[in-house]
Amino acid sequence: MSRDLTEPEIRKVRQGIREKYDKVAAAGPGGCFRYPTGREGMEQLGYPPEVLRDFPPAILAAFCGVGNPFSLGPLYPGDAVLDIGCGAGVDSLVAAHLVGEGGRVVGVDVTAAMIETARGHLARLGWPQVRFEPADAEALPFPADDFDAVISNGVFNLTLDKEQALAEAHRVLKPGGRLMLADMVLVAALPPEKGDKVENWFQ
Length: 203
Ligand SMILES: C[S@@+](CC[C@H](N)C(=O)[O-])C[C@H]1O[C@@H](n2cnc3c(N)ncnc32)[C@H](O)[C@@H]1O
Hints:
Layout lengths: L6 H21 L10 H7 L4 H6 L2 H4 L19 E5 L5 H10 L4 E6 L2 H14 L4 E5 L12 E7 L8 H11 E10 L14 H4 L3
Parallel strand pairs: 1-2, 1-4, 2-3, 4-5
C-alpha cells in the first residue's frame, strides 16, 4: 500500500513501472524477468494445450505472467471477463477463446505501450469480443456489477494501494462473480540489502 510512501516515492515507483514495461512492450519479455516467460512459461504453468498449439508464436512469446489464473476455475461461454494489467494481452486472448464470440473480454493496463502491443496481437486474430483500454487497477473505468469474472496475472504486486485495487475488482464483479488472480507474494522479510522497497518494487 502507498500509505507509508512519500509523493516523490510514489512518482518514482510509477515512473519505474512505466519505463520497465515500455521496454517489455518494445523488445518482449526475454531477459526482463526472473521466471520463465513466453511459451515456455505458459507450458510450465499448464495453459490449455489448444492455446499452445493454435495461438501465433509471437503472441505466446509476449506472455509475462507469474501463474495461471485459468487453473483457478472455469470461464463459461458468454462470460464477461476483465483482465487487470493485461500487458501484451495474452491472458485476455486466452479468456476470449474460452468465452467465445458470445462473451466479452476487456484487457486494461496502465502502460500505454503494452496496450498498443495487445491491440496489435488482437488485430492478428480479429476477435470481436475483445478490446484493450488503458486504465489503472486502482480506478477502473467500469460500472459496478459489470463482469462475471476478473482475472489478473502478476499485477497486484505492482499496485501502490492493493486494498483499493482489490476493492475495485470487487466493485466491478457481478454478485457471485469470480476473481481469479495469480501473483507473487513476499513470504519473509527482504534481506537488509534489498530493503529499499521503492528500488525493488518493479525489479
Ligand atoms: C508482469 S506483467 C504481466 C502482464 C500480463 N498480465 C501477462 O500475464 O502477460 C505486469 C503488467 O502490469 C501492468 N501494471 C502495473 N501496475 C498496474 C496498475 N496499477 N494498473 C494496471 N496495470 C498495471 C504493467 O504495465 C504490466 O503490463
